[in-house]
């Protein structure tokens, strides 16, 4: 805060919003520049680009320069936002829910809306028990595994606990399975990297929202709001989540109302 000259930001956004906003903007810019320096292999602001040097653009036209910069930016953003396979897993699971989960017995053609229903059908009708991977707590589809003697899975932890209390009351079950089967603690450097990478992601999201508002790009703003809705719901900001959900619902009411909401600059 002292380096940016926004010491009043210490008071928080409720007391001095403008100073806090300026500080967060400068901090986001610093994160972007620092990450880009690591991306291109620069050791300092005056250093050379060692890992991704700028090619000779003497004979390039404007379109070629744009295409090169676009590709470099795309690779940079992929490194920032695609650190895990969560997006791919979400897409795979979403497609599976839309298409339905088919019974994995060769002679059975039944389909089910949930993976847990399919597993129950396979075990009770066909006696088929399939190892769907994952860990001791969840399978590869993200469904909760029964911690008793059966091999059923459940969409939520609540339904799993209810099943265990009714079907396996005599089985001793750990109260915090995720804590017992958690991954090995990461090093301090990993924690620091994860924090700064998360700060960079949130900062770039906010920058994208502000830029979409300035440009009047309603479609891009809606895509950003979809991402914000997940954060609002995750951290129990129910009023913000409800307002965003209401915005999405109203946007689907009619083409005219949707266009007014998308491009309303008031």
TrEMBL record:
Domain C2H2-type, residue spans: 103-126, 146-168
GO molecular function: serine C-palmitoyltransferase activity
Any Pfam family the entry gives: DUF6589
Region ranges (Disordered): 163-187
Protein EC: 2.3.1.50
Enzyme class: transferase
Keyword set, alphabetical order: Acyltransferase, Membrane, Transferase, Transmembrane, Transmembrane helix
Keyword Aminoacyl-tRNA synthetase: no
Transmembrane annotation, as ranges: 240-262
Name of the protein this chain belongs to: Serine palmitoyltransferase 2
Organism this protein belongs to: Desmophyllum pertusum
High-level lineage: Eukaryota, Metazoa, Cnidaria, Anthozoa, Hexacorallia
């Amino acid at each position: 805060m002292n380096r940016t000259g926004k010491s009043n930001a210490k008071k928080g956004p409720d007391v001095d919003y403008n100073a806090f906003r300026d500080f967060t903007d400068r901090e986001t810019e610093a994160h972007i520049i620092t990450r880009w320096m690591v991306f291109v292999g620069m050791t300092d602001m005056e250093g050379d680009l060692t890992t991704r040097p700028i090619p000779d653009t003497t004979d390039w036209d404007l379109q070629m320069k744009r295409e090169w910069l676009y590709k470099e930016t795309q690779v940079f953003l992929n490194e920032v936002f695609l650190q895990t396979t969560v997006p791919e897993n979400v897409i795979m699971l979403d497609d599976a829910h839309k298409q339905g989960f088919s019974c994995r017995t060769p002679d059975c053609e039944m389909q089910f809306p949930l993976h847990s229903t399919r597993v129950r059908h396979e075990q009770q009708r066909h006696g088929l028990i399939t190892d769907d991977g994952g860990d001791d707590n969840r399978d590869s589809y993200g469904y909760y595994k029964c911690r008793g003697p059966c091999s059923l899975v459940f969409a939520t932890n609540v339904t799993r606990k209810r099943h265990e209390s009714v079907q396996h009351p005599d089985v001793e079950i750990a109260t915090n399975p995720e804590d017992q089967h958690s991954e090995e603690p990461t090093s301090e450097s990993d924690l620091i990297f994860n924090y700064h990478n998360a700060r960079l992601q949130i900062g770039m999201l906010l920058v994208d929202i502000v830029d979409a508002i300035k440009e009047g790009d309603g479609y891009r703003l809606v895509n950003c709001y979809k991402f914000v809705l997940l954060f609002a719901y995750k951290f129990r900001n129910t009023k913000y989540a409800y307002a965003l959900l209401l915005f999405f619902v109203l946007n689907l009411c009619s083409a005219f109302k949707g266009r007014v909401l998308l491009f309303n600059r008031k």
